[in-house]
Amino acid sequence: MARTLSKSGLEHIEARIVNGQNIFELYSQINKTLEIEAGAELRHFFSEPQVSQARGEIVWRTQAVGAPLRLGELDEADRQRVSELLQNKCDVVRQVIQKIEKASKGSTTTTEALKNMLITPDIDHSVFVVGEHLVLTEWGCHQYGKDVRDFDLTEQIRRKRKPAPAEQNATMGPSPAPTGEGGNPEAVVTPPQETLEPAMQPLTDQSDTVAEEKPFEEPVQESEEPQHNPPEEPQEPDEPQQPEEPKKPEEPEGPVGQGYLAITDDSGFYWRWLVLLLLLLLLLLGLLLKDWRTSSESELRDTISRLKQQVDDKVSQCNAKDGTDSRPPALSEPPTGNQQSQTEMNPGERDSRLDERGAERGSAANVSLLWNDNADLDLEVVEPSGSRISIYEGTQSTTGGKINVDENLCTKMSGCSNAKASPVENVIWTGKPSPGKYRVVVNLFSANTTPDKLKAIDYTVIVTLDGQDTSYKGTFHPNEMKCNERCTVTQRQVTEFDIR
User: Fold this and answer.
1) Phi first, then psi: what are they for 365, rounded to 5°?
2) Distance between the two ends of the chain, CA-based, in angstroms?
3) 43 vs 24, 113, 246, 338, 393, CA distance in Å?
């Protein structure tokens, strides 16, 4: 079950954009890719972002179990160990990037998103230790107006480790002076590395040694600064240039200079903030219009799909009365077996497919997804608590719901030989589900074909509550599929149902 780790204000951070898409919209696709390519090694590493434009915040959630601790709350010994583990995670992500780019012969949306996910404002604030897992929040973000290269995870780890050699040299006393000698620095560096490893468990001893080393750093740095900086800085205020500067405002006379300064300070401050406020309002307006257009477009497509299905049903009834079976071809695509097979995706067909696979049905509640194509569709149910039952985030929830059938998994655009032509996916509850509202979502993870061979994919969702079956039909059209390394459509909500 997912829980909240932290929250981020949208006014403080800037999310990365990958090929025109907000990086958070790619989370489910990338999370599934990492599950396939890296297995359990990166599980729970990237926390789930839930963006709320109304509240102006991002909620970072994870399914990892354990008491959460920020990296900045750990002592020095634990920070060093966690930093090494964090660097290992970054290396695994980069290995996945190289593997995908080698297979695709170039950069893809997934690899660009993974590169940008290794960016965070501050690792002390955004890295958590949750039980046995490292969890990264505020990934893919950086502070407004700052250079994004300063927020790279590896660069931040390197900067955090940078004071370590100075602390080790400071413990040797006179060793900082003979820096030109080759033997002494090596003797200074190697003993602390050997003593740190056995001292990882008694953290209190390690924190004491670090506390003792810090006072030695400051005098060493202070002694080095006057060596590199000649004594010209204290002489600069004694140069005759500074007494000449106050003479300049005397030329236009005191009252005129004071009046000029007062006008520029007040007006400049006012106009700068006014322009900034207008830009923020335009940005919010653009985001609202984008969300409105997206939602209205999806609703319009669903309405057209339902009307088309109703017309097809009426035509079928009329032809049945006349004894004919001829129907006019569809406007968007030639008549295929898809339309005929969609009428066959009923509860009886569902039972037949589940029986073939030896899969049980939920005694309390059951949600099934049927389609007649070798594409990879994924069924997902969002529970009232916000946890998701899907192949992406865990096949079983704490409330007893679980997905017991998932088919046609394939990562190749050309398709896989083990794909089935009449697949089914199923989510069951053997006990009484938790009361509340449940949302049913269908994703097209991969059409399992090349872009020149795309076709419409009809599907049916059957919800069974208290023995009563309710069917919901839909279609993924080629013009809404986005093709990179795969042709996909994400996050289409089919229906909602309440449990009392």
Assistant:
1) -155, 155
2) 21
3) 17, 17, 64, 38, 9
pLDDT tens sequence across 79-122: 899 999 999 999 999 999 999 999 999 999 999 999 999 999 99
Name the burial class of residue 87, with classes exposed (0-12), middle (13-18) and buried (19+) by CB atoms within 10 angstroms of its CB: middle
Residue 410 has what DSSP assignment? -
Strand 133-136 relative to strand 141-143, pairing: unpaired
* Alpha carbons 96 and 38: distance in angstroms, whole number: 7
Q: Identify the residue with better confidence: 210 or 56.
A: 56
Residue 184 has pLDDT above 60, yes or no: no
Binned at pLDDT 50, 70 and 90, residue 220 comes out as very low
Cα separation, 68 vs 119, in Å, equals: 21
The chain-wide mean pLDDT, for the chain, equals 76
* Edge-first strand listing for the sheet containing 57-62: 3-9, 57-62, 48-52
Calpha distance 144→283 (Å, rounded) = 14
Q: What integer is the mean pLDDT of 371-393?
A: 88
Q: Where are the domains of the chain?
A: 3-161, 165-176+184-226, 272-323, 340-499
Q: Name the residue among 215, 192, 220 with its Cα closest to residue 77.
A: 192
Which parts of 345-467 are beta strand (E)?
Answer: 365-371, 376-382, 388-389, 401-405, 424-429, 436-446, 457-465
Contacts of 191 (CB under 8 A, 6+ apart): none
pLDDT at 394: 66
